[in-house]
Each structure stands twice: as C-alpha cells, then as structure tokens.
Specification:
By secondary structure, the chain is α+β, with helices and mostly antiparallel strands. The chain is built from 4 helices and 4 strands. The structure holds zinc ion (ZN).
C-alpha cells in the first residue's frame, strides 16, 4: 500500500529524467540541437536587423506629448533589454521629455508595441498563458480542498 502512494512522484521524476537525460551532442539529437542553435541565432540576428530599421524611433528634435499635447524635446537615447523567445535583445531608443508635464516617451516602444515588462512578444504571450493555466489548475483544487 505504501508503494502505490509513491507511483505518481516516481512517474514525474522519470519523465523529468527522460527529458534532461537525453543524450545531447550525439547522433540525430546533436544534429537537431545544432540546427536549433543556428535557427535561434538567425532569429535573434534578424530581429536585431529589423528593429535597427526603425532608427531608434527618432522623430526629430521634438514630438507631441502623448499626455498633454505640448511639444516634448528629444533628450537622447536610452537602452533597454528585451527578452524574447531564444534570447535577449538590447534595444537603443530615442526618448523625449515634456517640459510641461514631465512625461517621458519612447516612440520605438510605441511602434514595436512593447510593454513595460522585460519579456515581450510570443514569450510574453506564453508566460501569460502559463499564468492562466496555473490559476485555473489552482482554482480546480479549491473545491477539493473545501470538500476535505
Ligand atoms: Zn506633457
């Protein structure tokens, strides 16, 4: 009887070992890993090139303040790290500050649709999905916990 209680934890452990214990760098797995790495680097390279085409989001010496409509002044460039699937991109963006309401804005963030989080794009979508799944699986346990 004591053994049946251990079945689930052992099964989970075996699955985990099957994933981490897979021979890497040998045969078809090694070739596939190498292909994944080439694809990952090509993706990051392409993303960096495409983002570079936006020229930092620079819109000239001034732009309208999204908060109050006053003219914001270009103040220079600031970099931020954007974490995407497969890696981190350092993005340099022009920024503007409003002399009236002191709001800072980054046109490139607006053009790319970047939020304030480090994680962006599909990675952010996946993290949001995981959060939903965790919440719903926790919610599924609530009736059991209440019933016991
Ligand atoms: Zn303003």
């Amino acid at each position: 009887m004591a053994r049946t209680k251990k079945v689930l934890p052992e099964g989970v452990k075996v699955m985990f070992e099957a994933v981490t214990g897979r021979p890497r760098g040998q045969g078809i797995f090694g070739i596939e890993d190498e292909g994944d790495e080439v694809a990952r680097q090509a993706k990051l390279q392409r993303m960096a090139e495409r983002i570079g085409e936006y020229d930092r989001g620079y819109e000239g010496n001034r732009r309208r303040c999204p908060q109050c409509g006053q003219w914001q002044q270009y103040k220079g460039d600031a970099s931020r790290e954007v974490v995407v699937e497969g890696g981190t991109l350092t993005v340099v963006r022009a920024y503007y500050v409003c002399p009236r309401c002191h709001t800072a804005s980054y046109p490139l963030d607006e053009q790319l649709g970047l939020g304030e989080e480090h994680e962006q794009g599909r990675l952010r979508e996946k993290l949001a999905l995981v959060a939903v799944l965790v919440v719903s699986s926790s919610a599924a346990r609530v009736p059991n916990a209440v019933g016991q």
